[in-house]
Structures are given as structure tokens and as C-alpha cells.
């Protein structure tokens, strides 16, 4: 049952992604609305599948690559809907849903069996630490999509190539504002995730910081976004530069998430 | 009753003819009543704008109505028939319906897709309504013309893109800043086109207006017009630090703003975006400035390109609009032809009701002791019988067939209905 729900959510996200990509080249209000509707259906099913898994494993399902990727995708869609509700930018899905779909697809290729939780993970810190980390990362993922939209719109305005997509993309000011907001939301979440992680490490392993690859890369990510905020406030690095930095930041997150787990030996890697 | 439209517009008549035939001010009321007095004219709406004069009428006899209306126009406007007759176009029936739908949807306008015409048509209709010169047919036609125009507006993108340079500038500004309210704006120089663009920006909410002109006095004059302040021309670079939108048209023969000037300005304004429109020819702003981050420079050719593509776009959308109009014209003609059979249907039903009432009266007189409940039951049965009997002919009348006129005549004969008394 849980598998069926997961596959169904994946299918819905796949359909929404395809429509949203077609939407970039040839579309309008109707196809944007359709994208949002299908994503909504996928999100509902996805939520149920996560609850289902929660009941099956007895804790927040984020302790395997399969679960973590799926939960990451879920957080992104959550933020996507929040933004859609607030700003009503139909075309936004075309830049965010592909990220969701790729995460779901990678989730689907990882093994799905339920393994018993190692004693060290059996803690109240598990849901708190991971939820903060994932929500923060999801905000950065959406910021990356918005940053891409900004770069595209900026390119259109500079090159004076004012086609159909130019008309459907929102103004630079709105995109920059959303990007900034997402980073100001994501940054404190990431900070809290690192702090709660340190506290948990202290109680589980006896030390706050062990230079584990995941910790190192999280710190790198943290510095990138700290830099984004810092140069914005001091030197006025807004717009294009902020957009590029938010894309670089997200690449670092992806490496923290996939690279560290798969390539490097880490205490955070799912055994 | 037939729909008849007589009119002239910017395509068929020159300004002078249009002016002479215009119904403006008090002439509108006189004209509407004058037209209504023509015996053949049963309903009338007059639309008079600077680009067109159109008379929407319902007439009993087309040929004589056309003659009388032409004579009326000649007399009313004091103009010889030969002076305006060849500029007139005349539409009847389906043609007329299509014409008014195209007018309301702004497909017949000088600038296709411009939105004013719909408002003007609404006003013309409201005026006729208030003077009670319309009836069932024109009321329905006008309402349908308005709803078709709205359909065209929402289902196509005919009115979406700017087709003038100053509107294009406003549209671009909105893609950089979203909301123009609270944005600061500087007019550099004081060309006529710059003034027009400035006015559009102010209408769109730009509040903080500055004018920097070589002759300070002229700058002051303009600044007053926009409720802004005048700035000495030599100081415009300093002002640029606090300006979001610039329109430049100085008439200088060299660049007045260079790349390194602008780079310094951008640093001082912490990279806040600037939109610069250079409509001077030769250009007054170094085109290299467009390469600086967060600076968007458009010259007059760039804006013209935007306008040209938008005009092309509108033409494509106009084709979609024509299809919508054809659909709605068909619906309307159907409704109109169903109108023909309505009086007959009403008469048929009346006749049946009469027969029923008569027979019920006789029945009551024959059986005066019968209690109410039983009388009601009989009446119920009688109603059911007449309903069943008149249902097939009514259904046939409602149907949209070619030989309906014959059918109407036949039914009148068969049921002994004297049709004419029911008309009008």
C-alpha cells in the first residue's frame, strides 16, 4: 500500500513536471493551472504515503536515502504551494517541479526496506534536527528555482528579447524579493539544524563537533548563505548576483545530501 | 423586424465628414429622438465617437428605412446627401450582427484591441435606454455585443500588449519594478515624446518626479505640471543616485551619460535597479551602459521593436477573436429566428386555455353539486389533455428548421389562430 501511494505520487509529479516544462515553451494560464492541480493531487497522495510510512516505521521516515529524498521533495512542494498561494505565479512550477521530480526519482531507485533504527538515532532530536534541516534545504531549493527564473528574466530584459515567456515571468523585483525571503527563512532553519545537530551529537557521541563530512559540508553551505545575506546587506549584491549565489548554494546542498551520503564516509550516511 | 446598421468610420470617411455627421453634446438626444420619429424605425441606438458614427436600428422595412434615415442625416446635419453617401456602409441581418460584435470587440478599431470602444458603446446603449428608444431586439443585441467583447477580451490576448512607445515603456518598467507607485522618476531634457511617456508613468503611480533641463526655467514649468521638482542639469548625476526610472531626450549631439559615470552611480545606490529610456535621436546615453548589472537601457528603436512585435501579436489574436465572434453571431441569429415562432406558440397556448376554460365553465354549470375536490381533479385532467395535445406543434415550432415559415402559417390555419393580432 505504501509503495503504491509512493509510485502514484511519483507519477503525478512526473505528469506535472512534463506539463510544466511544456508550459515554458508553449502554454498559458490553463496549463499552469493544470500543473498546480496535478501537483496538488500528487502532494496529497505523497503526504498520505509519508504518514503511512511513519506509522510503519514508528518514527519520522528520514533514515534511509529513499525516505530522505522523498521527504526532501515533500518539503519543497510544501514551500512551493505556500509561494503559489501568496504570489500566484503560475509559471513558477516549471522551475521547481523538475527538482521535486528528480528527488522523487532518486528516492524511487534507493532500497525501500525498513531497517531497525540504530540506538544512536533513537532520540527526540531525530525529528527536530532533520525537520529543520530539510525545511531549510527545501527553502534553498526553491530559492534556486526562483534564482533561475530571475536570471532568465534578466537575460530577456538585457537582450531585449521580449517573447512569450518574458511576459509570463514575473518582474525582477518580485523574483528578487522571493529569493531574499526564502534565504532569510532557510538560513535560520539551517543554523538551528546545525545547533540541534551539535547538541544531539554531544548527547549521543559525547562531542559537539567531529568534523564529519556532513558537518563540514553543512558548514560550507551555511557560509555560502551567510555570504549571500552579508553582501546583500552591505554591498547591495542583489538581483543577478544573489540569484547566481543561490544557485551555487543549492549545488552545495545537493552535494551535502547526495555526495556525502554516497561518496564519502560519514556518520550521517545511511548504513 | 430587421436589424439595420448605417454608419461610417475612419476607414470609409475622412475626419471632416466624420465631424459633420457626429452626434455630440445636445445633438445626441435630438438625433436619437429624430431617428425614432421615422415611421419605419422601431428601435434605435446612436454611437458617435471621434472615429465612427453608427446608427443601430430595428426597422420594419429596410429599403424605405434606409432612404428615410439618409434624408434625416442630410437634414439634421445640414449636409448634402452626395457629400456623405459614398462614405456610408449599410449592414442588415447577420452582417449587421457581425458588424456590431466586431466593433464592440475592437476588431474594427483604428488600433485593433484598444479598450475605449466598449465603454463608448456601453454609454451609447445606456443613453438610448434612458431615453427609452430601444426594445427587446436592440437590448438583447447590445447586451450580447458587450458580452461578446468581454469574451474576446478574456479568451484572447488582443488587448494585452502595448502598441505605443510610451505604453511599451510603462510595461517594461512593470517587468522590472512590479509596482510603479513610490518609484522615483527623472525627466532628462524635455522632448515632446518624453513628456508623453512621463505622463503615462505618472498615471501608473510614479510619485517622485524630477526634471533636469538645460534651460532651468522650462524645467520648472514641466516640473510643475507633474507636481515634481526641477533640478539643475549639471546636478543630474547626483540625482541619479536616488532615481529608479529615467527618460532622456535632451537634444544634445553627444552622450550626456557615460559608462563610468553610471558605474559610480550604481555603487552609490547599492545596485538598486535603474530603468533608463533614451528616446533622443541621436542617442544621448552611451549604449554600453546596458552592460552594467541592474541597469536596463532601452532606446527608441528598442521600444519600436517591442511595439512592432506586439502589433503582430495582436493580428494573430484578432484571428482567434473572429472565430469567437462567428460563434456568437450564430447563437444570436438562432435566438432571433426563434423569436418568429414565439407569438404563434403563445397564441396556440392561449387558444387551448380558452377552450379548456369554456368547457370547465359548462361542466360546472351542468354539475353544480359536485364538491371542489372533484372539480379540481377534472380540471387537472383537462389541463393534462391540452398540454399533451399542444406539445408536438409547439416543439415543432421551436425547432430550427428551414421551412419554419410554412409551418407557422400551417399551424395558424389548422388551429384557426389569427396570428397578426399577436405581433408587437
Note down, in words, how this protein is organized.
The complex is a heterodimer of chains A (271) and B (424). Chain A contains nine helices and no strands. Chain A has helices spanning 2-25, 29-57, 65-87, 93-109, 125-159, 164-168, 172-205, 213-235, 239-262. In chain A, α2 packs antiparallel against α3, α3 packs antiparallel against α4 (93-109) and α5 (125-159) packs antiparallel against α7. The longest helix of chain A has 35 residues, at 125-159. Chain B is an alpha/beta fold and 424 residues long. Chain B has helices at residues 15-21, 26-37, 62-77, 81-84, 93-104, 116-130, 136-155, 165-177, 192-203, 216-225, 236-240, 259-268, 300-366, 372-398, 404-415; strands at 2-9, 41-48, 52-59, 89-92, 184-188, 208-213, 229-232, 245-248, 274-278, 295-299. In chain B, α7 crosses α13 (300-366). The radius of gyration of chain B is 33 Å and the shape is elongated. Residues 420-424 of chain B have low confidence and may be disordered. Classes of the chains: A mainly alpha (271), B alpha/beta (424). The A-B interface holds A 153, 157-158, 160, 162, 166-167, 169-174, 235-241 and B 160-161, 172, 174-179, 269-273, 290, 293-294, 296, 298, 302, 305-306, 309.
Amino acid at each position: 500500500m505504501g509503495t503504491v501511494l509512493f509510485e502514484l505520487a511519483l507519477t503525478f509529479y512526473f505528469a506535472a513536471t512534463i506539463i510544466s516544462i511544456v508550459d515554458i515553451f508553449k502554454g498559458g494560464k490553463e496549463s499552469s493551472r493544470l500543473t498546480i492541480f496535478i501537483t496538488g493531487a500528487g502532494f496529497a497522495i505523497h503526504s498520505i504515503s509519508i504518514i503511512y510510512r511513519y506509522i510503519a516505521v514508528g518514527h519520522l521516515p528520514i533514515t534511509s536515502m529513499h525516505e530522505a529524498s522523498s521527504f526532501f521533495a515533500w518539503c519543497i512542494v510544501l514551500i512551493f504551494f505556500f509561494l503559489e498561494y501568496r504570489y500566484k505565479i503560475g509559471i513558477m512550477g516549471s522551475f521547481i517541479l523538475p527538482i521535486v521530480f528528480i528527488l522523487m526519482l532518486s528516492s524511487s531507485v534507493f532500497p525501500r526496506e525498513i531497517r531497525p533504527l540504530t540506538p544512536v538515532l533513537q532520540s527526540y532530536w531525530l525529528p527536530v534536527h532533520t525537520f529543520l534541516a530539510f525545511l531549510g534545504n527545501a527553502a534553498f531549493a526553491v530559492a534556486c528555482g526562483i534564482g533561475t527564473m530571475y536570471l532568465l528574466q534578466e537575460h530577456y530584459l538585457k537582450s531585449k528579447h521580449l517573447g512569450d515567456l518574458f511576459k509570463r515571468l514575473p518582474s525582477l523585483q518580485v523574483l528578487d524579493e522571493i529569493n531574499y525571503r526564502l534565504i532569510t527563512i532557510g538560513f535560520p532553519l539551517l543554523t538551528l539544524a546545525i545547533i540541534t545537530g551539535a547538541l544531539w551529537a554531544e548527547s549521543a557521541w559525547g562531542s559537539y563537533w567531529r568534523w564529519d563530512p556532513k558537518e563540514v559540508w553543512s558548514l560550507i553551505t551555511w557560509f555560502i548563505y551567510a555570504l549571500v545575506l552579508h553582501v546583500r546587506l552591505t554591498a547591495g549584491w542583489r538581483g543577478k548576483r544573489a540569484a547566481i549565489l543561490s544557485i551555487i548554494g543549492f549545488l552545495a546542498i545537493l552535494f551535502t545530501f547526495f555526495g556525502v551520503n554516497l561518496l564519502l564516509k560519514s556518520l550521517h550516511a545511511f548504513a | 423586424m430587421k436589424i439595420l446598421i448605417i454608419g461610417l468610420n475612419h476607414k470609409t470617411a475622412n475626419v471632416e465628414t466624420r465631424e459633420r455627421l457626429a452626434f455630440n453634446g445636445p445633438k445626441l438626444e435630438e438625433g436619437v429622438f429624430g431617428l425614432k420619429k421615422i415611421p419605419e424605425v422601431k428601435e434605435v441606438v446612436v454611437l458617435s465617437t471621434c472615429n465612427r458614427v453608427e446608427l443601430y436600428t430595428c426597422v420594419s422595412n429596410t429599403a424605405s428605412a434606409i432612404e428615410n434615415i439618409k434624408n434625416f442625416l442630410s437634414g439634421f446635419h445640414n449636409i448634402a446627401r452626395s457629400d456623405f453617401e459614398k462614405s456610408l456602409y449599410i449592414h442588415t441581418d447577420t452582417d449587421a450582427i457581425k458588424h456590431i460584435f466586431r466593433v464592440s470587440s475592437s476588431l474594427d478599431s483604428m488600433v485593433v484591441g484598444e479598450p475605449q470602444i466598449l465603454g463608448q458603446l456601453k454609454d451609447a446603449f445606456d443613453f438610448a435606454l434612458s431615453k427609452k428608444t430601444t426594445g427587446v431586439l436592440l437590448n438583447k443585441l447590445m447586451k450580447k455585443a458587450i458580452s461578446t467583447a468581454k469574451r474576446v477580451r478574456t479568451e484572447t490576448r488582443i488587448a494585452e500588449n502595448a502598441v505605443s512607445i510610451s505604453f511599451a515603456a510603462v510595461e517594461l518598467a512593470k517587468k522590472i519594478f512590479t509596482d510603479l507607485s513610490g518609484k522615483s522618476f527623472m525627466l532628462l531634457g524635455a522632448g515632446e515624446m518624453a513628456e508623453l511617456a512621463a505622463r503615462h508613468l505618472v498615471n501608473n503611480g510614479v510619485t517622485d518626479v524630477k526634471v533636469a533641463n538645460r534651460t532651468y526655467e522650462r524645467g520648472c514649468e514641466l516640473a510643475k505640471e507633474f507636481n515634481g521638482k526641477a533640478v539643475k542639469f549639471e546636478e543630474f548625476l547626483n540625482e541619479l543616485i536616488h532615481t529608479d526610472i529615467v527618460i532622456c531626450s535632451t537634444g544634445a549631439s553627444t552622450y550626456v551619460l557615460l559608462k563610468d559615470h553610471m558605474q559610480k552611480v550604481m555603487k552609490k545606490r547599492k545596485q538598486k535597479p535603474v530603468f533608463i529610456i533614451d528616446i533622443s535621436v541621436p542617442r544621448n546615453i552611451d549604449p554600453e551602459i546596458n552592460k552594467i548589472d541592474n541597469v536596463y537601457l532601452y532606446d527608441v528603436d528598442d521600444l519600436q521593436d517591442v511595439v512592432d512585435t506586439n502589433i503582430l501579436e495582436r493580428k494573430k489574436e484578432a484571428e482567434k477573436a473572429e472565430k469567437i465572434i462567428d460563434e456568437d453571431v450564430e447563437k444570436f441569429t438562432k435566438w432571433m429566428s426563434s423569436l418568429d415562432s414565439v407569438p404563434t406558440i403563445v397564441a396556440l397556448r392561449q387558444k387551448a386555455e380558452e377552450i379548456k376554460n369554456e368547457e370547465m365553465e359548462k361542466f360546472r354549470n351542468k354539475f353544480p353539486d359536485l364538491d371542489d375536490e372533484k372539480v379540481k381533479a377534472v380540471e387537472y385532467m383537462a389541463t393534462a389533455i391540452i398540454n399533451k395535445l399542444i406539445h408536438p406543434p409547439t416543439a415543432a415550432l421551436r425547432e430550427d428548421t428551414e421551412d419554419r415559415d410554412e409551418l407557422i402559417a400551417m399551424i395558424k390555419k389548422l388551429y384557426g389562430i389569427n396570428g397578426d393580432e399577436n405581433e408587437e
